[in-house]
Design brief:
Order of helices and strands: EEEHHEHEEHEHEHHEH
Strand content: 5-15%
Structural class: alpha/beta
CATH architecture of the largest domain: Alpha-Beta Barrel
Number of helices: 8
CATH class of the largest domain: Alpha Beta
Largest sheet: 5 strands, parallel
Helix content: 40-55%
Shape: globular
Number of domains: 2
Number of strands: 9
CATH superfamily of the largest domain: Glycosidases
Length: about 220
């Protein structure tokens, strides 16, 4: 029988801008680090069944096999005690400074170690979004040049996509090795480009091909 899950989320994105000199931490912007108990209570009051939520990756993943779980321990314990159901959101548009950005070929394997460490620390969590909106992340970081590596080339975009998808798959495998009954809830944008004039037809076709070829490439079976 299919199940419907009414969920919301607390934004934990943290991309860098200004060539890595400034990080945009949305949890800090909305004062969640101070008001997390009230935020959880309000979600329950709204009748939310599940909350997509995760600790900020850049503040938690301090280095290879180095983690700071202080805030995550408090927040996840509260969710486990009171609800809503947690959907663990592990990487949301940014990586720690020591990793750099999504051009780093070491990112996928490093991220998988973080995913394994998190599920080992919070074994009661069953729902996971390993990497949020991979296409959007790669587009904004390596095609439009707004975030993180701030590049504008096809090569940078393809590299970012390749590393993000590989990191997502390796993280899924790492999580499954600890808890085989997990459920992955992937998220991605939904869009379609309509040409505004005959001159825009070719460009719209290219953008749609790029957008809709990505899901087919990433949804390969594990193993």
């Amino acid at each position: 029988m299919p199940h419907f899950l009414f969920a919301t989320g607390i934004e934990n994105s943290s991309p860098t801008v200004n060539n890595g000199r400034k990080r945009i931490d949305e949890m800090a912007s909305c004062r969640h680090y101070e008001l997390w108990r009230e935020d959880f209570a309000l979600a329950r009051e709204l009748g939310v069944g599940a909350l997509r939520y995760g600790p900020p990756l850049y503040r938690t993943f301090l280095g290879a096999d180095r983690f700071d779980w202080e805030f995550a321990d408090l927040a996840f314990a509260e969710l486990n005690k009171l609800g809503p159901i947690a959907i663990a959101d592990l990487c949301h548009f940014g990586v720690p400074d020591w990793i750099g950005d999504f051009q780093n070929p070491d990112f996928p394997e490093l991220f998988a170690t973080y995913a394994r460490a998190l599920v080992q620390r919070f074994p009661w969590v069953q729902l996971f979004t390993p990497i949020n909106e991979m296409f959007v992340c790669a587009t904004f970081s390596a095609a439009y040049g707004w975030w993180n590596e701030q590049l504008h080339t096809d090569k940078a975009f393809v590299t970012a996509i390749k590393h993000l998808v590989k990191a997502n798959v390796l993280a899924m495998q790492a999580i499954l090795s600890v808890r085989p009954d997990v459920i992955f809830i992937q998220s991605e944008s939904s869009e379609y480009f309509h040409p505004s004039s005959p001159q825009a037809v070719q460009r719209a076709h290219l953008l749609n091909e790029r957008r809709f070829s990505f899901p087919r490439s990433k949804l390969r079976p594990l193993g």
